[in-house]
Amino acid sequence: MSHAKIKARAKQAPLKKLPPLARIKEFPAAQLHHASSLHQASRSSAVKPTSAAYDECIDRAFRIPIFLSTANSLNTLQQQFFDRLVQEIEDALLFPRTLPQSEQYPETVLTNIRRLVISSYGMLAINFRRFFVQILEANVGQPPTTTPFWQGSTFSQIEPSMAFQFGLPILLVRESGTDTNNGVWAGGIAPLNIFVEWNSDSQTVDEFFSSVQWREVFANWTAEVRNNYYLRTEPQFSLQMQ
């Protein structure tokens, strides 16, 4: 056999051992594309709940936070009033915050109230009837009254007082006959222009919230809250120049 024929045969031998083109197609081009589409599908499915949660945050972000002070134990009628009150607040683009329902810090009660007061731009306190009590005896002299009366939550006294000390715009709403001679809710203690009363015995929830008294006081209070938000979010230098 000539040298040329041997050389040609040596060149052809390795070519017979190479894999066919069909086997090359099994290499990762198609598999990588498939894995990439699976990754994108799983990623898009994970984005959906995140997007919904983000939308909820955005909905809250455009509302000015206010401290909503209320009792925790409510009867059916009081719960209807409270739910409508929350709706009124949200319709005014404010965000109601309560302790401990909407948030709670791992600290003492007074510290929690102080943190919520400082991080809010207004206070709306609702004092519902809670305890029907009667004074039987006083430590000195005769009791101021022996007629039974309604008493509200203790925190309905503490939270508005702390908010007033900090200078928040305050709106006080009381169920008629509650703490009429007690603390912040007694006559002549709080300014009358921030005080409104709901007569639950003769006035429905819709009648109260459609009354001129409520709409006027609420409109004035929301304007004060927005003004407080504007002032407290201004640069300190800008406030000094004013």
Q: Unreliable stretches, pLDDT < 50, 5 or more residues?
A: 21-39, 44-48
- Distance between the amino and carboxyl termini: 108 Å
Strand count, sense and barrel status of the largest sheet are: 5 strands, parallel
Mean pLDDT over the full residue set: 80
Distinct helical segment count: 9
The share of residues in helices is 40-55%
What is the total tally of β strands? Answer: 7
N-to-C series of helices and strands: HHHEHEHEEEHEEHHH
Rough outline: globular
**Strand ordering within the main sheet:** 2-1-3-6-7
By secondary-structure content and strand pairing, the structural class works out as alpha/beta
Range of strand content: 5-15%
State Rg. Answer: 35 Å
